[in-house]
Structure formats: structure tokens, C-alpha cells
Amino acid sequence: MAMPVSLKVEQISLAEAAGPHRRVSVIYGCVREIEWQHTHEQAIEYIENRLFAYHVLHHDRAVRLVVDRTVAGEKFLKTELDGEVPALLLQLPLRAAANHPA
To answer: Total structural domains in the chain?
Structure first.
């Protein structure tokens, strides 16, 4: 099986009126001057299918994003250092919803 492409997550957009597990609606980054964006659902699918492996920088260290489940069984993104809430992911700079490319 091929290795997933590694992408650094640099910004996020938040969903309105969502619980802590679903607050991140879109993740963003840039590879060789090409900006990319993946929805929360796309990122989960891409991780599970080993298409992409995402990470954030924390104290100059790459920290992987992983898929976890709530008590109710709902999938959500968090970093491997996070507990039940994706706190590290939620600390990334925000991109306003109005700036989403079409």
C-alpha cells in the first residue's frame, strides 16, 4: 500500500453552533505555493483511506492528526496529543468563512 501524502495544517475554519468535536469545519494548508483545503468529513475519509496524513506544528514538532470517536460514535479530528477535545487543533489560526475559495 502506498504511503499517504503528508500535509501540514496551518489554518482552520469553525462550524457555527457546533459542539467541541465538530467545531472544526475545514482545514487548510499550502504545499509548494499551492493552497489546499479539506472539509472535516473529507479529512476523516482521507486519513482512513491513507490518502493523506495531516499534522500540525507544536513546539517545532510535527503532531499527527488522527480520527477519534465521541461516546455516541461520531467521528472527529484531533491531534495525537489531544484528549477528548481537539484542543491543539482548535488553537490554529482561523480563516473566516467568507474567505473560502469557491
So the answer is: 1
